[in-house]
Amino acid sequence: DAGVTQSPTHLIKTRGQQVTLRCSPISGHKSVSWYQQVLGQGPQFIFQYYEKEERGRGNFPDRFSARQFPNYSSELNVNALLLGDSALYLCASSLGPTRQNTGELFFGEGSRLTVL
Amino acid sequence: AQSVTQLDSQVPVFEEAPVELRCNYSSSVSVYLFWYVQYPNQGLQLLLKYLSGSTLVKGINGFEAEFNKSQTSFHLRKPSVHISDTAEYFCAVSARSYGQNFVFGPGTRLSVLP
Q: Which of A37, A60, A114 to mutate to test the interface with B (most CBs of B within 10 A)?
């Protein structure tokens, strides 16, 4: 079975531009979360979506937005890019609030964004 | 809210030696505990998790961790490390109520030396 897939794997943008990152969860998973990992730090929670609804939001500015589609894939959008947005953006999927949910997140390999 | 502390940012150790990576957490609610590993230029892979039951948890690649509620710790151990264990290790917690807003520690870089 395919794991969590993310695209693009690498991208370079300039300050002020906008970026869209995409994520496909593991088949059968209905929850997608996004994390930002700045170099040398642990991942920081950005958003969680379940059944196309936002279920959680971390301490990020409104320039960050996301959505989940009927097929449970997700997009993360970042507007007006700043140098500090340079990071590895990780998508994670899970079953959601079901009895089969063992609590863990399954991560993709990430999209590395460089803002110049 | 939860927080995670990983006291050692870097741990160098010789091959075949034992290693312990320390993790302490704080939370006002019950939590699940996890250890993830990140190899260079890759995403995070689950090593092991503690949900309930036995406080000694065994994971992949010979790693194990022990949950200590009184000390709010979840230290990761391996009796004999290999060169291939060189990676970044992250401890994480999530509240037991559904939300799965994982809170990660800053990570410990394990370097296994020949």
A: A37
